[in-house]
């Protein structure tokens, strides 16, 4: 007796296909600091599916968010805010790396001259 094979339908949910709206939602939630678990709950999919379907968004959102904030800080520093200048230079410039959490006096003088401020010598 030979058995014939019957094609059985696949079990489980159909493959997840992300929409443009879902991608925007995920980018927004990642930017706001939501976890993958929270995003999965919102989209009603498994965490592994979030990781698989939104790999690019997960990998790049932090860089984009940091870049936007750094750009704003840079613009404020260029406008003359001394705190923004100091923070930007501490974080971004090799020439202005701090020692013991303080900028070198020469760097402070240069920073002051850039914004037109006067520093009293002690």
Number of domains: 2
Distance between the termini: 104 Å
Number of strands: 0
**Percentage of residues in helical conformation:** 55-70%
Cα radius of gyration in angstroms: 26 Å
Please provide a written account of the structure.
The chain has 6 helices and no strands. With 122 residues, it is mostly helical. The protein has 2 domains: 18-61; 80-122, no CATH class. Helix 1 (20-32) crosses helix 4 (55-78) and helix 4 (55-78) packs across helix 5. The longest helix is centred in the middle third of the chain and has 24 residues, at 55-78. It starts with 19 loop residues before the first helix and ends in a 7-residue tail after the last helix. The mean pLDDT is 80.
Quick rundown:
This protein has helices at residues 20-32, 36-43, 47-53, 55-78, 82-92, 105-115. With 122 residues, the protein is mostly helical.
């Amino acid at each position: 007796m030979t058995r014939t094979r019957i094609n059985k339908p696949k079990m489980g949910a159909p493959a997840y296909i992300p929409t443009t709206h879902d991608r925007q939602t995920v980018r927004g939630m990642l930017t706001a600091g939501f976890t993958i678990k929270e995003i999965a709950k919102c989209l009603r999919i498994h965490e592994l599916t979030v990781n698989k379907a939104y790999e690019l968004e997960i990998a790049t959102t932090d860089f984009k968010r940091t870049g936007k904030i750094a750009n704003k800080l840079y613009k404020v520093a260029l406008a003359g805010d001394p705190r923004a200048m100091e923070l930007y230079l501490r974080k971004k410039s090799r020439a202005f790396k701090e020692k013991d959490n303080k900028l070198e006096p020469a760097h402070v003088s240069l920073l002051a001259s850039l914004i037109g401020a006067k520093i009293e010598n002690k």
